[in-house]
Amino acid sequence: MNFQLSDDQRAIKRTARDLLASRYRPETVRELADDERGFTDEQWLELAELGWPGVIVPEADGGLGLGAIELVVIQEEIGYALAPTPLLSTVSAALLLVAAGDQEQRSRWLPSLAAGETRGTVAVWDERSGWAPDGSELESVDGRLTGTKVAVADAASAEFVIVAGADARHSLVRSDDPGAEIAPERSLDPTRKLYTVKLSGACADQLRAGDGERITRAYATIVTAVAAENVGVAQRALEMAVAHAKDRKQFGRAIGSYQAVSHRCAQMLLEVEGARSLCYWAGWALDHDPAVAVRAASMAKAYASDAGFRVTAAALQVHGGIGFTWEHDLHFFLKRAKANGHAFGDGRWHRDRVAELSGI
Amino acid sequence: MDLTLSPSEQAFRDELRAWLEANHPGAVPREEQGSFEFRRAWQRRLHDAGWAGISWPERYGGRGASLIEQAIFNEEIVRARTPQLANVLGLAMGGPTVIAHGTEEQRQRYLPPILSADEIWCQGFSEPESGSDLASLKTRATRSGDGWVITGQKVWTTYAQHAKWCMLLARTIPDAPRHQGLSYFLMDMEQEGVQVRPLRQITGEAEFNELFLEQARVPESNIIGGEGNGWAVAITTLMHERATLAFGLQVSVQIALQELVEHAERSPGSNGRAAAADPLVRQRLAQLMIEAEVLRLNAYRGLSATMQGGVPGPEGSLAKWHWSEVNQALTELAMDISGVRALAIEGDGVGDNNWTYRFLRARANSIEGGTTEILKNIVAERVLGLPRMR
Fold it and tell me: Nearest CA to CA, how far is B265 from chain A (Å)?
């Protein structure tokens, strides 16, 4: 029994922390938030050289063949740096390809995804349906898809989109397909670019090998990765709040000496640590304890969705008026945490899932 | 990272689990003195089999168990729903304090009867005017001949009516800075200067007592850690209370949660369906399951950190605070599920088969063993490094 990262995992975390801190300084994040594409080729190539797009892709498919726990560690640091990057979108697409692609589809796409030469993304939400990946009402006629997907992250910079269709069938649609129209949305969170993908008889290459269980596990991994990102976002917001509470003086003393402020910070710590424990557990379970992994992932996502918002909102409150200004960086953290909270099932959805998986 | 038990840890757990199953003493009698003697006998049985004070060094009757084995022990003993041990305060707090700060003579004298439950221990820290601000306590010890004479009042003294020894914190140097003027005594409860009065609580029962000390006598040899060092010794006691608690607490929450789910499945909700089918009840149940998992995982994370760092950190404060919130939320949901049936108290209204009792008892969780407000202060100052209040 040992609930601590291994030396290798710690090394990944340290590398990620240092690299991301130097590449995504606050002013860079701000520039990318304003930028239409949201990242530069140089930034992408650097992450690709570390092998991160293929971190969880099997070695036989050209990836690093590491586990969900390593993905969790990287995602936590991405969140901590608030890095705007299409990494999660590409990793998500890779996870679904690994879960459901047949040999031909895997060898066509996975090696180039893992090498960072190709990017993909995942389109889950119909315009009108809820979150569940099997709840889509996309029309499929003779291998051609018609319907509209919303909030598709990084679609304009991806070569293909994995589209969730009816009955949890997933298909690969190339972004340059004449039947696919990709239009930018204005995102709540400007550090992640969202698009509406309108399919009008788009040519779809259905993923042929996946069964329901493998797809469920792929989503559980994606959900854990999103939750882990919120751990990092919330950790950074907590640190900003504590630093401000030590520094800012009112009525002649640091505001962090007032219990109304210090107890709020303690509450933030409780929630950040709770979310972290759940994410590490879910990551570990995905690699080593499949029987509990899906439930663990939903627990992590439910908790981190709510904690991410509450902690960043509390950090804003601790900052007072300055925290409400565009000039201060805090709002980017609040928006990222809130957007992550809604992506791939919000707290309420995942709690319902936890109840269901617990036999209630 | 490896969240599975090693083969030797698993063997330890299996052995303990099998022993508990074979030796479970059954239900505790309801009546107070009988129930205590029942629990004393239960502890003796554990002790005879070598399961009492397992973390203590072997030369003092323990088995020098590792931290992880202690954690497993605390989990299993709760999971098996065994009665609380009669000498829980001596085992969890008194013994470890004597081991850490006592003389060799004191260890030889006091430790064996703690394990065998021949001598029960209680704790005399809090006073009517010194709760969270413990260091302001006024109970006074003055030298007299070859010992001390103690006068004052203590409160929240669990098991005082059964105890032979009291871990007593008293002021020996009145004009010293307040943390430096305290000494830690082992006071014999069987003397005229000690009066015990039961303190009736909101559940109607009296788990706690008030202690009135009027010229109580303690020999010089019964100071632990030396005169004037009482504060440091007391902190050891409190650290042990919080560090070893987390594992038992998280399992007790898991058990309560199973019972709550059964309660929700049996209780009527709206539209002729079970309460468990109500979406709001489901949401709250799921949230509690998640929080219970956080308690479990944090306990293991804390343990791993302690195994690496050596001493338990202030994170134990976080665990106790979080547990009290979860247990209160759990019993509040149970009351909501009971609906109008929560208004009538069933039976004698005491015990874990009664949600109304548990709901009322849980109100103390955020006060006993350190109020949530004090625990948040500790987390803010020692974990986050925020400036001290005031």
Answer: 8
Q: Do B3 and A262 touch (CB under 8 A)?
A: no
Annotate B157-226 with DSSP letters as a single string: -TTTTT-SEEEEEEES-TTS-TTTSEEEEEEESSSTTEEEEEE--TTSS--EEEEEEEEEEEEGGGEES-
* pTM reported for the whole predicted model: 0.95
Q: Is residue A328 part of a domain?
A: yes
A65's CB contacts (< 8 A; 6+ apart) are: A56, A57, A58, A59
Whether B68 and B307 have beta carbons less than 8 Å apart is answered as yes
Q: Does the pLDDT of residue B309 top 90, yes or no?
A: no
Indicate whether A220 and A349 sit together in one domain. yes
Q: Using the beta-carbon criterion (under 8 Å), do A265 and B386 form an inter-chain contact? A: yes
Contact yes or no for B338/B268 (Cβ under 8 A):
no
DSSP state of A359: T
Residue A256 belongs to domain with CATH number = 1.20.140.10
Beta-sheet pairing, B147-155 with A253-254 = unpaired
Q: Are residues A226 and A198 in the same domain?
A: no
The H-or-E segment that residue B55 falls in is none
Residue matched to tokens 């608030």: A82
Quick check: is A1 in a domain? no
Q: What is the mean pLDDT of residues B64-72?
A: 89
ipTM of the complex: 0.96
Considering the domain architecture, whether residues A172 and A223 belong to the same structural domain is answered as: no
| CB burial readout A144-153, b (16+ within 10 A) else e | bbebbbbbbb
Quote the CA–CA distance of B148 and B139 in Å, as a whole number.
12
How close A162 gets to chain B, by Cα (Å)?
Answer: 31
Q: What gap in Å lies between CA B337 and CA B276, rounded to an integer? A: 9
Are residues A101 and A146 located together in one domain of the fold?
no
Range of the domain at A169: 120-206
Domains and CATH numbers, chain B: 7-116 (1.10.540.10), 121-228 (2.40.110.10), 233-383 (1.20.140.10)
